[in-house]
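A favour, since you know our structure tokens better than I do. Would you make up a two-line entry for one protein for me to read? Write everything out right here, beneath this request.
=====
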Amino acid sequence: MNQSKVMRGFLDTGLLLLMLFSYISSAVSSSHYSYSCQSHEQFHLNGMHKNGDVILGGLFKIHFFSTDPDLSFTSQPQLPTCYGVDIIGFRMAQTMAFAIDEINRNSNLLLNVTLGYSLYDNCLDLGIAYRAALTLVSGQEEQVTLKENCVGTPPVLGIVGESSSGRSIAISTVLGLYRVPLVSYFATCSCLSDPQKFPSFFRTIPSDAFQVNAIIQILKRFGWTWVGLLISDEDYGVHAARSFHSDLGPAGGGCLAYTEILPWGDDPAELRRIVDVMRKSTARVVIVFSNKSHMIKLMKEVVRQNVTGLQWIASESWTTADVLQTPHLMPYLGGTLGIAIRRGEIPGLRDFLLQIHPVLHHNNTFGNSMVNQFWEHIFQCRFAPPPAGWVEAGGELCTGQEVIENVETEFLDDSNLRPEYNVYKAVYALAYALDDMLQCEPGRGPFSNNTCAHLQRLEPWQLLYYLAKVNFTTTFGDEVSFDENGDTLPIYDIMNWVWLPDGRTMVQRVGEVKRSAFKGDKLTLDEDKIFWNFEPKQPPRSVCSESCPPGTRMLQEQFILNGMHKTGDVILGGLFAINFFSTDPDLTFISEPQLPTCYGFNIIGFRQAQTMAFAVDEINKNSNLLPNVTLGYSLYDNCNRLGIGFRAALALVSGQEEQVTSEENCVGTPPVLGIVGDSSSRRSIAISTVLGLYRVPMVSYFATCSCLSDRHKFPSFFRTIPSDAFQVNAMIQILKHFGWTWAGLLISDDDYGVHAARSFHSDLGPAGGGCLAYTEILPWGDDPAELRRIVDVMRKSTARVVIVFAYESHMINLMKEVVRQNVTGLQWIASEAWSSVDVLQTPHLMPYLGGTLGIAIRRGEIPGLRDFLLQTRPDLHHNNKEGNSMVNQFWEHTFQCRFAPPPAGWVESGREFCTGQEVIENVETEFLDVSNLRPEYNVYKAVYALAYALDDMLQCEPGRGPFINNTCAQLQRLEPWQLVHYLEKVNFTTTFGDLVSFDENGDTLPIYDIMNWVWLPDGRTKVQRVGEVKRSELTLDEDKIFWNFESKQPPRSVCSESCPPGTRMARKKGEPECCFDCVPCSEGKISNTTDSMECTSCPEDFWSSPQRDHCVPKKTEFLSYHEPLGICLTTTSLLGTFICVVVLGLFIHHHSTPIVRANNSELSFLLLVSLKLCFLCSLLFIGRPRLWTCQLRHAAFGISFVLCVSCILVKTMVVLAVFRASKPGGESSLKWFGALQQRGTVLVLTSVQAAICTAWLVSASPVPHKNTQYHNDKIVYECIVGSVIGFAVLLGYIGLLAVLSFLLAFLARNLPDSFNEAKLITFSMLIFCAVWVAFVPAYISSPGKYADAVEVFAILASSFGLLVALFGPKCYIILLRPERNTKKAIMGRGTTK
């Protein structure tokens, strides 16, 4: 596939997914709002449309190809252009149009409802198909206005499509979220039958799972049990392969000889290899599950190699492909049997197709151009305006009057309608579902509150309910309904490729496979019609082995295996690696393959086998365990190879006899009751998968893969070695103990390494707080380039700790490169597979590996084992080739001799014969070293686990057993599954003191030894035990650990140093979570621990310290007596009070003088007192706010100033009254302004303010408040006014009196000089009003204590203004111009004027 096209598909998919989610999500979230949204751009799609009450969408392949837009993003990418008209795809689209037209004319279906359609071209491109689907579900308008409620029928109620499984998967994944039904006519992938993933997907073509079943029915019919399978590398082929692998055996009794994946594109080498496999295979039947493009390329190679004599089975995608039905290919493909989509007949379709005519007045660029493009393709013309140069080149213009019948085209061929028939059924399925929905009786509907759907407000999810229940019969007689997975009742035609004598070809129908709701699957074949492309004109025979006659059972062949046996009442099996290597047999299949030969004797593996023999012998001698029962054993060599291990396991469970005569009932104990083994996780997985099917217990002593803990996959698997999950946990405990949070991981490329890596990646962070700097897979074999790259990663990494979860062979190859690059200073952590390997403990490697910490299997002690090993003797009279040769091979390896008859040339070369009398103790061998028994100890425990389980089973009391009807197992008829029951409950303690039992996953209680590689001063090496991990508890003796660093201390391995208190960890983008920056906590937040993930906010009354590591009480702020501003204001207030007292004293002293007595001296005294109160009330605004000060400050301020302004107002009124009295006829005005009236007026005006203050204090009293809004790090103590209205009324009343006084004084400003005090009042009121007008904005904009300061300043400024303006001139006269303080002087001024 073109790479750019793939890239464009992914880009389009992502973009369209995002747009679809955004559009629908925004539509949902806006259900209570009205707004409009503008689409990014309008997609111009090839389409065909018809209006109706309900619109159905359709997606069809009208073009084969599309252009790739420029994706350099140096300019706006252009939309792709489609080309290469697909006549068949257009016919499918027209079939949908015909079906809708037919439904609209049907008076019995959807009465009074007109269906319309919107059909789009997908151009075989996922991105374009996605765009089309998006357009169908969201509409094509560029701007959409969303009302308060989005009501009405959506753009389409359902979609017929897609034609491809891949596109259907992608589109249905999104449409399923919003329950928009998608009914496919050609998507066959069985994966689409998952209603959890695709809840709104239906199809009228059967699933590939049914197609696979149909093919299996054919194979079964002709007895073809040995077949090859070729598949395409996509969902279509892969899912079919899965179905074949799972169903072929159970359903058809057959096997796959091979499964090969056909390459995309032209890959001659791979095709050559695949055809070579086909040619060499004995399977004569080949199933091909791919499309015709794969077949075209494959057949080129088949013809080149001339591979004939094969019976081909075709999937529906190439069964009817004309391009393959050529005289050139029919010698190879003749006789092919294929599965084909059901052929149907659609009366009237051809007449409908003949009526097609283009839209002459439609602009092709705006989405309704499908018919016009078809017309141009058929008649090779162009509609006006034609492309540039078209007319000049002699091209014709389309008139629209051309006659389709005059052109030879397959468009009008309705004799083989297969996908079209599925389209027809899909449209009718939607129509019948809609009809059922609209016929719902109100109050008896299926939706909430028994409601029904309404035509004006149809929802796609409502249609889904009825679509799942639809059931009708087509005019062709086929029943259409959907099962719970959205699949239709499957029916296939069986096609046969006939090669006629005249060389012509014909594809004929020879049968069908049909499933009904009641009778299941049924294959019908007319064998007389089938053409066989073989000499006898009969179906070929394709079996791996011929049938066994009655009285025998099938056995592939007798496996000659290295073994060791002992008879007994009950036999236990064992699988051990006795040899390291095996030869690869010749697999050219030109002769019978020979069995592989094992070589490279493994002393340790043999010692493990002997440990099992010793344990069985010890149990037989124990009168308390299995009394009156003798155990035997059959031990086999797996040669470190899966194939041989599998053969050995099959030999153990089925026996070695070549032929078994069956009696009436097969009774008795099976060949083995349980198996000890295998030593490898990979082999244990494979073997236990099969043994688990028959519940044969398998107890491994060395398979550690955590995957084996899956009880569903391995129900009869147990082990006496801990799982790698526990080993990984043990390593994590070590990392956590030393604070190593940054480590590298090297793994082997098998289950052992891969599952360990998964555990590290999932558990290292949560359990140990660590991260992996890198994870690298060590190659099998010697790969210098890859090893060089891996070691280079290790060298450049800042991680000083390296965990290696691999085998000694990997480490040997790795260390060569480590030494070459001289990478030192690393702390190695070894898995149990190489933690005690001697070959790595050399002076050459210890500068690099010294100090290694490793996980080791628990070391145990087995008393008597060494003496048993010394008694090992060969069987001099046994033929080594008959499967009991294990001891003899050991003997030959140890003493370098051969038993008679020796190999050719052995004697001539002067080598010795084995006598069997050689003494093992005289040979230096690790066979007798029982000081470090680890795998052997696990073997020992495995044998005892099986023995104790068998003992518990045989001690069952009749009538109280665990099996059906409380029965017990019988020694004469023991079954392996019965032993599994008891094995799960086994619980005993070894002589070494270790408890042995199994958990629900078959895992033993985990315990590991921690080993340390010590590099002694004399150059020798030693591996010592420095601790253990038991369950999840780590115990370490750190004083014993040897560290291979100059400091003799454990290294530090972290990605980022710890964050101190006062900071938090912030992960570095794109790096593991252990790599972080230390970010200081923001103001108001602290962290008081190391490596804090988050900073915590301080309590409301606290703030962070400068170091951000603890909270300190917030500074409190208020207008204090101790700060300069408070001192200044206090001083000024007291000064003003003092001046008032002085002036008052001066006026009292001179109370009899004219200047004092003028204009009511009593009011002057009262005014001075009120001014003094004004000065004093400002002190209430200074100091820590308390409840009484908050309540008193504004009340005292308001009353004091009203008293002051009231006196001024009365004085002003008196001045005006005196002036009026001086005029003729005005004497009577003075009677209203006598002393009593003046006092009363002042009292009344002041009482009003007192009433205002009282109401304010009672209703919403000012209270102290801690304000944290102004400053995060300070608490501002302030008085909140409680009622803004009360405060406003208080100020407003003062302002009203002040303005009134000002106006009256202003009116009296030009009176004679004898009444000059009016000017003073005017000036004083002007100052007063100016101060308080400026106060309001200043007060509002001043935060905290400065608001109080502004108010105090306003009080003092206005008070000083009144004091100076009113009393300054009088004090001047009294003190400095006493000659003017006479009545004559005062009156005289008026005279001179």
